[in-house]
Amino acid sequence: MEGSLKGKLLIALPTLKDPLFERAVILLCAHNEEHAMGIVINHAMTDIGCNELFDQLGMQNAPSTQVPLLLGGPVCPERGFVLHSDDYDAEGATASIMDGVCLTATEDVLLALASDTPPEKAVLALGYAGWGEGQLEEEIMENVWLVADASEALIYDKSYNTKWNRALASIGVSPENLNSQAGHA
C-alpha cells in the first residue's frame, strides 16, 4: 500500500468478530512502513467516567465539562491519549493528525482539560490499536477494514452507537449490503 493512511478512518467490516474491534471506527494517528497506531473513536467506556478517572489519577481538578472517555484500543489500556482541537499545543508533545485534530498523551493535556481554557473539542481514550510492519496493509487486503476520509464532526461526535453506520455512509456503503462472511475467489 503506497502512502500514509495517517488521518484516515478504518471501519471494521462485519467479518471482524474480535469483540475489541467489532463495528469499530479507528482514527489512524500514525502510519508508516514500520507500524500503524490508531484510536477507536466509537467505543465509549461504560464502567468509568472522565471525572472518576481524574479522581483515580489524584488530579485536584476535573474538567468542568464532561469529556468523553473512550476505550481507544487494547494496547496500553492504562495509558491515556487525548484527541483534541488544534487550539491546544503542548510544545514537542502534540502531534497534528489532520486539520482540527491533534493527539497529545502527556499529563499537561489533562491539566489543560481541567483548566479555565481547555481545548474547544476533546475526547480522552484509554489505550490504542497498533499494528506491526505490514500488518495493517495485510488486514486491509484481507477485507478486515474499509478506509475512509475522517472528519472532525465524526471524530468528536458523542453519538457512539451510530458512528459505525455514519462512517460507512460517508463512503456510500450501507451496512445491509455488507456480508458477514469473508469472500474467497
From TrEMBL:
Cellular-component GO terms for this entry: cytosol
Top-level taxon of origin: Bacteria
SUPFAM superfamilies, alphabetized: VC0467-like
Recorded family membership: Belongs to the UPF0301 (AlgH) family.
Name of this protein: UPF0301 protein Hbal_1034
